[in-house]
Amino acid sequence: MKNVYFIGVGLIGGSLALDFKKNNPNMIIHGISRKDTTLNEAISLNLIDKKATLDDISNADLVIVSIPVDATVNLLPTILDKIPDTGLVVDAGSTKDAICKIVENHPKRRNFLAAHPIAGTEHSGPSAAFSGLFDRKTIIICEVEKTAFKLQEKALKLFTEIGMRVRYMNPEAHDKHIAYMSHLSHISSFMLGKTVIEKEKNERDIFDMAGSGFASTVRLAKSSPEMWTPIFKQNKANVVEILDDYIQNLIKFKEFMEADDFDEIYNEMKNTNHIKDILKGIA
Ligand code: NAP
Questions:
Q1: From edge to edge, which strands make up the β-sheet containing 165-169?
Q2: Global pTM?
Q3: For ligand 1, atom 48, which residue shows the shortest CA distance?
Q4: For tag attachment on the chain, is the N or C end more exposed, with fewer CB atoms within 10 Å?
């Protein structure tokens, strides 16, 4: 895998580029983006070696697509049209069903691997990229059997070399579970931030009183709406379903409060403390 093209050189693309290059110093990292200023920034941060355009991927051994998921769905068929028979395209999108469906009948489907690295931060763009983001994190691979064996083998080697554990899942199961584990947390954080901003008109008060609890719970509300809106759009059914359950729990909590039923309030929290055992070693 000598000529590697990154379409999208933000947090995920840029961080992957840094770690791939660290393990493979002879790799030539080419960057493709909408804006030239983004590529200039990626060069100045040493994320990429060269600027490129979509037409150049006819020369690619590997293309990593790390742009918002709606842009991935739009662009993926064209990317596959242009890739040589020996090349592989891997996407890093946070949804998998719409992305797998758009290429299911593409003549070069065997040159595509659907992936989701479960690693990230609330920051975006090239300046957010850093080496080590993927160490000891999971990468979910969907429909691995639809990718040519030799190509999947090369890609999985690159991912395991940077410390990732591989898990296989079908795209529908991925989107359902990720709605629970990631998408709901983002909505919850955004709406917590909104509620507090609306109540506390004075920004100085929020700043002065924000303890580590508030700061850590609201951290995800700093995430990019440009990336998250298409994720919620593509995973609407699963997100609406889990939001219903979450809202029911909030209503129940409020009803216990109104009824002065603090035994039940205690029980709700005590039962949920079990999350400590589930997340041991992660948080
Ligand atoms: P990011 O830091 O915002 O970088 C994405 C880059 O894509 C931007 O630098 C932007 O470059 C480019 N871009 C934006 N809109 C585009 C469009 N419509 N067409 C083409 N390029 C566009 O985002 P990221 O966090 O790296 O996320 C990239 C992908 O990884 C997404 O699919 C996301 O779902 C997935 N992912 C994210 C996380 C996370 O926690 N952030 C974790 C796992 C997977 P320009 O400035 O040139 O437009």
A1: 50-51, 28-32, 3-7, 62-65, 88-91, 112-118, 138-142, 165-169
A2: 0.94
A3: 34
A4: C
Pairing state between β 88-91 and 165-169: unpaired
State the Cα–Cα distance between residues 37 and 15, nearest whole angstrom.
Answer: 18
Q: What is the pLDDT of residues 151-167, one digit of tens each?
A: 999 999 999 999 999 99
From the CB of residue 267, how many other CB atoms can be counted at a distance below 10 Å? 12
Judge if 3-170 and 174-278 fold alike in CATH terms. no
Fold observed for domain 174-278: 6-phosphogluconate dehydrogenase C-terminal fold (1.10.3660)
Minimum-distance ligand 1 atom for the alpha carbon of 93:
32
Residue with tokens 């000891």: 136
Report strand pairing: 112-118 vs 138-142: antiparallel
The residue extents of the domains of the chain are 3-170, 174-278
Residue 18 to residue 226: CA distance in whole angstroms:
24
Q: Hey, what CATH topology would domain 3-170 get?
A: Rossmann fold (3.40.50)
Question: Best mutation site among 227, 231, 233, 234 for ligand 1, i.e. most ligand atoms within 8 A of its Cβ?
Answer: 227
Q: How far is residue 187's CA from residue 221's CA, in Å, rounded to a whole number? A: 8
Tokens standing for residue 200: 């506390």
**CA–CA distance, 30 with 47 (Å, rounded to integer):** 9
Provide φ and ψ at 41, rounded to 5°.
Answer: -65, -40
- The model's pLDDT over 65-104, given as tens digits with 9 standing for 90+, comes to 999 999 999 999 999 999 999 999 999 999 999 999 999 9
Q: By C-alpha distance, which of 168, 111, 126, 164 is closest to 38?
A: 126
- Ligand 1 probe mutation, 34, 54, 76, 222, most atoms within 8 A of CB: 34
